[in-house]
Amino acid sequence: MTHCNGCLKENIDGFCTACETKIFDRSKVPVQLTFNWNDIQDRITGQPAAFSISGVQPKGFIGRDKNNLLAPNRNIESMYIIKPFLDSRRALHFDSPANEHLTMTMADQLFNISTAKCGFVKFANGEPAYLTRRFDRDKEGNKLRQEDFVSVLNATPGPNDHGLYKYNAFTYEDVGNRLNPTDQIRFIRILVFNFITGNGDVHLKNLSLLESADGDMILSPSYDLMNTKLHINDPKIAMNLFKEMERTKQHLLTDTYIYKIGDFLELGKRLRVKDRILIAVENEFRAAKPAMLSFVDKSFLSDAGKLKYKEVVALHHDYLFTS
Prior knowledge:
single chain; Phosphatidylinositol 3-kinase Catalytic Subunit, Chain A, Domain 5; 3-stranded antiparallel beta sheet; 11 helices; 33% helix; 12% strand
């Protein structure tokens, strides 16, 4: 069975009409690109433009000219971010684009979590790629103000920090205290979703505020959502929920703390989210495991990738909701 390369709707070959509208402004962009990752690397001095997953996942920027996605050049506005698969030293490296696409789409489709619009595509040589539309640009391509929480909280590296300050300098409680009440509810749901889907890389740079049409700074759409457990062995969550909670430090895999849904609800209470809303969040995710496991089968993951993804979801869901 074919699925939309955007929303994973069934019986769609390529992008459905709704995804063409959301991602490409109604243009009929083909799934198969006309260039390869090397064409992007060759246009960038030194290393690729940026990295994610703790510095191991390359990403570049491309523009669009009507129905054609283009490699970067000086005359085309870079409206999209594209990521190739991970290097072969990582487990299931070829699955990383499908992994990110699945996780982002699941957040959007099953939980109505605002995410960057994205799709699963292939380079000219057939290699898979993850494509996402930049949300820090308006429809005319003008840049919107965006601040990640390294900037918002003024997090600074210490001596010999090796970049770990984005994990250790602050907690999720610190982030939540800088959000408006509506965004605090969104934030709790995002954290629970990320825990169940095995995303151990939600650090300060992967959380942002974005300028609204009214000039307010609100929680941005979620981005860089993926099940990192498919590819690397990392802690269950990237940062401490609370300053006083004893938890594993980054890259120290002797974690003895078992997270429960009550930990996330306690965070909500500290952020003064109403009890009835927190109960609704708990009930929503408690009942979500069957739908999440079923949704994985729609993805472009390999059979081995689907199996591992489901194992992580089942295990982490049990952590939260099993006594």
